[in-house]
Every structure is written in C-alpha cells, then in structure tokens.
Amino acid sequence: MKASKSIVVLFLLQSVLWSGCEPEQNQSGEVTQVKEDDKKPIDVFVKKAQKQKLYTPLEFAGLIKASEELRIYTQLSGTIKRVHVDEGSKVVKGQTLFSVTPNGLGLAYQEHQIKAPKSGVLIRLEVENGQHVAAHQELGLVTSYKGFETIIYGTESDLAYIKRGTRLQVVLSPSTPFEETTSGEVTQVAVSPDLETLAYKIKVKILCASHEPCRKGLKIGALTRVEARQNERLSYLIPSKYLHKRATKIIVVEDNKAKWKDVKTGEVFGDQTELISGIDEESIIVSSYAKRPTEGESVHIVQNEEEQKPLSTAPDQKSTHL
Prior knowledge:
By secondary structure, the chain is mainly beta. Helix content is 6%, strand content 45%.
C-alpha cells in the first residue's frame, strides 16, 4: 500500500513539472512562447567624448652654446710667453689675456699682448705657456653669458613646421639630475642644406622666464632635446581599451540602450588612440561594464565621480601640450 501511494505522488509531481514547461495556448488554441521576465539592464560606466588639441611631435637633439661668442686669434706667428687667465675665468673688456713673443723681428722685438674684446667668461682655452702659434690661430673663446641658444638640424620636410619665429619646447640637460624644460624661438634657418648630410642648420634661442632662469640645466656644451609640433589638430582621444572588434568599433549609450558604432582611428599615443570619425561631442562612450552589452541591449549608467570628466589626454612622451 505504501509503495502504490509513493508511485501516485511521483506521477502527480512529474505532471506538474511537465505542465510548467509546456508552451501556453491562446483562446484560439494556438501555441505561443512563454514570455520571460524583463531582463535587468547591464550596469555600465561611461565617459563623454571631448575634443583635444593633438599633434605629432618632431624631436631634435642639440647642444647648448652662448648666443654671443667671440673667438680670439693671434695676428702674428710666435710663442706664447704667458697665459694670464685660466679657462672659466671672468674677464673684462681690455684685460690682457695672452702675451706673445713674435717671430722674426730680431732687434725690433716687441712683446705682443692680446686683450679681451668684451667682458664675459673665457669658456675655452686653446693654448698654453711656451706653445708656438701661427698667425691667425685661435687662442680661446669668450662669451658674455647674456643669452644662450641650441643648434639643431632638420630635413627639408621638417621646415614645413619650423620657420623663423616658431616657438618650440626645449628640454635642457635631458635625462640628468639637472633636467629643466623651457621654451625656445627659432632665430635662423639655413637657406641651403649641408652638402654631406642634406640637413638644414637651425638656431634656436633658449627662452627662460625671469622668475625661473634655468640655473640647473643651462650649461654650455650640455645636451638639449627640442620638440616641434607637426600636424596640429583638434581630435578625439580615448583609451585604447574602449575599442572593440580590432579597434573598429566602440559601444555608446543611446536612449538607455547599447549601440555598437563604427569608428575610424588615427594615431596611437601610448595606451590611447585618436578617433577621426564615428563619434561627436554628444557621444557617451561605454568605458567598462559588468557584462559586455550586445547591440540594442538595455543598459544602466552607473553614476560615478568620473562620469562628467573629459577623456584623458595623451601621454607626455608623444602627443602632449607644450
């Protein structure tokens, strides 16, 4: 008796389960699909698109030199009797720098003195006591330290972006403890290239603010890194991780639904990518999600502190503001 009761209970339970899986019938007897409960919208984080000023950098290496340098030469051949100053010494205009005993004057011998043509610093000394010198030989170099410049060399295509008066970014003594960043202005561009290298010589005046006089990195002979802007434009820049389908699509939110949009990409700046077309300033880009939404799927924008902030700018190493 107990066994037959168990069989009846199992039969009734199985009937209930089967009846729950069958499709519903309407009044006319037609079979219809059972409607599922409305799906919960997918939580997404978003950021609004915003145009930024971008450019492709042109970088050049140079050396720091004084803008005003005066080379000192002998007038006659002879022997350096005495060097009166040391290299790096400050000198004043008219100060005796070298005493030279001329050659071939016999009894008409008269010591020849060479004086500083201008006040400044003797930054380079080319001779020493007792050394024989020829006529018109360079003895040293004096600078006034009133201005500094760096010399760079560019190609013919670079001259489309570098002209006299162009402002550039100048990094003094890069990759050293004395590194400083300032600006510079192109003061001279060669009209013809060097015959061997085909490069054009470009002089850049180093500009230091009066309240920041570049005391650390401004050393004669130190390296510089000069940066110019090429192809400057306004464009969108987004983190590359926002892109999908081999960087051809992004997900945006329109009317609380996900929409996959085709985009055209431009240059890549570190971990960020330029978008040339496919979005505008009204676009709300999905930056992250609990589950990746499909086309037309309902989404819920999670309110967070970053939602109203513009998209990040390009990294310093490549495309960045001066």
